[in-house]
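pasting for ref
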Amino acid sequence: MSKERIHKLRLELRRGVLILAVLGSSKIPQYGYSLRKHLNGAGIDIDEGTLYPLIRRLADQELLDSEWKHAEGRERRYYQLSSKGSEVLTQLTTDWQQMNNSLTKILALEEN
């Protein structure tokens, strides 16, 4: 399989995980750049062209609250997990853990 095809498959795999990562990282107020740095520091590389549309979409879905704050001499839009977002995060985390457990079993069978 070509490297390009593998790259596309990895991107597909990451899409849902990024939602979970952004919601989980938004338990404390974050602005776009700080959120990106936090995710990158945790080993999740995400570019601005992916992150900013995602956080806007999550805010539109009322999973993130947002407000403008003056910090470090500039206005920044801060995002934080909403109460609805917290409920969704809890459910998605449970779903992720169940799926991960199932995949671990499936992949272990494939190795034998």
